[in-house]
Amino acid sequence: MRARGWAGLALTVLLSAAFLKFCVRIVPADAPVSVAPSRPAAAEAGALLIPVEGVPPSALSDTFAQARASGARAHDAIDIMAARGRAVLAVADGRIEKLFWSGEGGRTVYQRSRDGRSIYYYAHLDGYAPGLAEGQAVRRGQRIASVGSTGNADPGAPHLHFAVHEMGPGEPWYGGQAINPYPLLARPR
C-alpha cells in the first residue's frame, strides 16, 4: 500500500514538471513591454494582437488540443501565463458583447469582432478595466481587463485563458465553432 502512495506522488511530480516545461511561461510583471505601438500590427505576431501586455510571441504555447484534467474535453483555447494584474488588451476592434461570471471561467469578457463573425473570449480575469460595459466599442490594443485566476484557475498560476469562436449569422455571444487562436496570435515557427 505504501509503494502505491509513493508511485502516485512520483507520477504527480513528473506530470507537474512536464506541465511546467511544456505549458507554462512566466512573464514578470516588471518585464519591459516588447510591442511598440507604431509597429505594423502583424510585424511579430499573427492577425490578432497578443491579448496580454508585454507578452512576446515566443512566450506563447499552443495548448488548444490539450486534454483538460478530466480528460473528457479538449482545451479549445490557449493559456497565456502572466503576473496577476497585467493588462489584458482587446485583440482586434470590436464590441463588448457580454461581461459574465461562470464557475469555470470566473470573470470573463466576450468581445464580438467588428464584422460579427468571431467572438473573442477572455477568462480568469482579476478585474475589468474601469468603465468597461456591454455594448461598448473597443479598439485593438485597448485595455479591457487584468490577468487573474478567477473561476477554476489555480490561484498560484494567474493567466489569461483566451479562445476564439467563429459565429454564424445571428448567433448569440455563446457557442460557435472553436478555432485555434495560437496561429492567429503568433507566426508559425
Structural class, by secondary structure, is alpha+beta
The separation of the N and C termini measures: 47 Å
**Helical content band:** 10-25%
How much is the radius of gyration in Å? 17 Å
What is the tally of helical segments? 2
> Main β-sheet, in a few words?
9 strands, antiparallel
Strand fraction equals 25-35%
Shape: globular
Write down the CATH topology of the domain at 72-183.
Glucose Permease (Domain IIA)
- Average pLDDT confidence is 79
Q: Are there runs of 5+ residues with pLDDT below 50, and where?
A: 29-45
CATH class of the domain at 72-183 equals Mainly Beta
CATH architecture of the domain at 72-183: Distorted Sandwich
CATH superfamily of the domain at 72-183: Glucose Permease (Domain IIA)
Q: Which series of helices and strands comes N to C?
A: HEEEEEEEEEH
Beta-strand segment tally: 9
Looking at this protein, list some descriptive labels.
189 residues, alpha+beta, Glucose Permease (Domain IIA), 9-stranded antiparallel sheet, 2 helices, Cell_wall_metabolism_enzyme
What does this entry look like structurally?
The chain is of the alpha+beta class and 189 residues long. The protein has a domain at 72-183: Glucose Permease (Domain IIA) (Distorted Sandwich), CATH 2.70.70. Helices cover 14% and strands 28% of the residues. The protein contains two helices and nine strands. The protein has helices spanning 2-23, 182-185; strands spanning 78-81, 87-89, 94-102, 106-113, 118-128, 137-138, 143-147, 159-166, 177-179. Strands 1, 2, 3, 4, 5, 6, 7, 8 and 9 form a nine-stranded antiparallel sheet that branches. A hairpin with a 3-residue loop joins strand 3 and strand 4 (106-113). The longest helix has 22 residues, at 2-23. It is globular. It starts with a helix and ends with a helix. One of its GO terms (molecular function) is metalloendopeptidase activity. This is Peptidase M23. Residues 74-175 form the M23ase beta-sheet core domain.
